[in-house]
Amino acid sequence: EKLYPELLLPLVPLVVSGYSGNVLVAGTHRSGKENILCGQVIVRQLIEDFFNELNKMTDGEWFTTVSFVQFYPDDTAVDLLYPQNRDLKPVTHPVLGIVIDNVCEIVVQTPGDAWKLYDEGRETQKATTGNLISRCSSLYSISAEKRLRSDSECAEYSLSRLQVFDLAGGAFRNDLNGISPLLKVLDQSESRSTPSDSLLPVVLTSALHGNCYNIILLRTMAPGSLVDEETPWALELAHRVRGLTTRVSPGHWSPQRTTHRLRTVIRELRNSIVLQGESGDDETRELAGLIKTLQVVKNQDWEKKREKSKENEEKRKKEHVSLKLLKIDDNLMEQSAKTYRDIQEKIRQLQEQLKKEMEEHLRAMKEARQDFSLTSTTDGKVTVDKNQERVGRIQELREAIREEQRKRKNADQGFSSSQKQEISSKFQNANYSCDKMSDAELEYSQALNRRRRLKEEHGDLIHKELLKMEQELEAEKPACKSMSPEGCCLCHVQDEGQAVEVQRLDREREILVLQLEALRREKAEAEKDLEAYHHRRIQEMDSLQAESLQVFRAFREVFEDQVETLEKRYRGLLLEVIQDAVYLSTRNQELEAENKQLEHALAKHRDALTVERGLRRAQQ
Q: Which ranges form a coiled coil (predicted)?
């Protein structure tokens, strides 16, 4: 009850006012962290209060996005909002600090949308991680950007960021559950060793030592560990985190000024490379890093983020539809398999019962044939009644087996018509929710738009440089004229003209270098798209091959099922013939017994008539 109001609630208004805040939940006790994050709805309360504070500020326009990333023990990362995205890399923003490149950022308007994405991410984490979930960490981030000045030439923004870390691992190095990434980062910073370039250590280092207002450490332990060796280590880790100090400043920045500054640095570095005539590995890496940082700054544009968010939503929707259809198919297949197994079990039981009845009937008939003698009419009737009752039970069992076999045949042919209609309707509804454009066409149009925007940006940049060069040359000509005395010699005028020409050639060379760099970037983008198309083509070929193999496998299974069905049918016919033969044999024996009884009764009747005739003759 006191955890959220006393520790977390004061952090929200400070974050919304233009700062960054981090909440760290660490420990090896998975259920304890689940209780803190979801059981006590800490994350939901943070989201609601965050949006409530945003709604209180009506003096500017807000732009809010959400991201959710999971980190495996081997330092690999996966995007929980779009699990297909695994190419996540840390990039240093000149003002905002560490930014995760290629992360799926979804634009949200309400706290319900943000909480829904968090809940979906948790479900994805449980479904994809499996038994490793207790050893995986995660980062849920909400970023809210406010436009302070809407001037197109020098717009200014304020960034508020709230990050919730779920960190796995123990507080001491011999823990069987692994070492906490928090402990690793603290040891690296204190030993001043080379920091790791993996995503989680970089993000954690930025959170511990970067521009953030507050860090809150919540350490969860198992109930049995309150008296073991983990407790002092956990307290020591909390004390080390508490002793950290950071420099706090508002996250205000201007994209135009930042872009201009980066381009100036890039131009100076290019000029130095051109003057040196050759570039070393360090200069090349520095130039590539500056260009990547410039691209990250451009990607912070709101319109680009909205467009990217729509693309991510479409991808997530298609992925959700695919998983939903796969789940429906699995459920129906499981239901059909269960029905088939029940029918098979019932047929087996009926066949066992029929086998027992036939064995008992044959044994009874054999005993009756061996012990058959002239008996009374009453005993013969009792035997015939028992045989008829037993044969009736056998016939009922045969009819029941035939009925179950018909049900099994219907189950083999596929789902029922209602199940097929259900799948068809759900598939149609899922298709209506997706875009009509195929994945290949969508990726092709996106690649064209990227290259077109890149070409336009390069054209604008080169045009601006040309205009700037002409303005500088025009400004230098009057200066040269004003600096020359009236009686200067022709040689001096020629030297000044040559100096202007040399300067113009230097500027043209800079512009040519800029054009070459632009063409190199466009070529790299085209090669990247071509490689993506090549990989997609390979995937399509693999999927077609897998589909063909699946079709052949299904055909083989159908053929084997048909062979098995024919074999079962012939066996059933043979069993019916045997049963009919047994029935006819039993009926023949019954008729023979009745004939013998009739012959015996006729003999008695003849004897009685003979005796009666003898008496009559004696009386006469």
A: 502-608
* 583-602 confidence digits (pLDDT tens): 888 889 889 999 999 999 99
Q: What class has domain 2-252?
A: alpha beta
Residue appearing with tokens 């319900």: 112
- Check residue 64 and report its DSSP letter: E
Q: DSSP readout, 136-154? A: -EEEEEEEEEEEEE--SSS
Mutual angle of helices 281-299 and 302-370, in 10-degree steps: 80
Structure tokens at 603: 């003999």
Q: Which residues pair with 179 in a beta bridge?
A: 170
How far is CA 529 from each of CA 414, 445, 518, 590, rounded to the nearest angstrom?
A: 43, 11, 17, 88
Q: From the CB of residue 68, how many other CB atoms can be counted at a distance below 10 Å?
A: 24
Give pLDDT tens digits for 44-85.
Answer: 889 999 999 888 887 778 899 999 999 988 888 888 888 877
Apex 483 CA angle, 477 and 484, nearest 5? 95
Single-letter amino acid, residue 478: P
Q: What is the pTM of this model?
A: 0.55
In a 10 Å sphere around its CB, with 0-12 CB exposed, 13-18 middle and 19+ buried, how is residue 192 labelled?
exposed
| Tokens linked to 324 | 């939903």
Q: What is the largest CA-CA distance in the chain?
A: 195
Q: What is the pLDDT of residues 129-188, one digit of tens each?
A: 777 787 888 999 999 988 887 665 677 888 888 999 888 877 766 666 667 888 888 887
Beta-bridge partners for 577: none
Which sequence spans correspond to the domains of the chain? 2-252
Residue 294 in contact with residue 263, Cβ under 8 Å? Answer: yes
- What CA–CA distances, in Å, run from 441 to 178, 338, 436, 506? 45, 41, 10, 44
Residues 6+ apart with CB under 8 A from 316: 81, 82, 104
Within 10 Å of residue 126's Cβ, how many Cβ atoms? 10
3-state secondary structure of 497: helix
Crossing angle (nearest 10°) for helices 302-370 and 417-433? 170
Q: 170: closest CA among 159, 179, 181?
A: 179
Q: What is the DSSP letter of 130?
A: G
- Per the DSSP assignment, residues forming a β-bridge with 558 are none
Q: CA 248, CA 478: separation in Å to the nearest integer?
A: 50
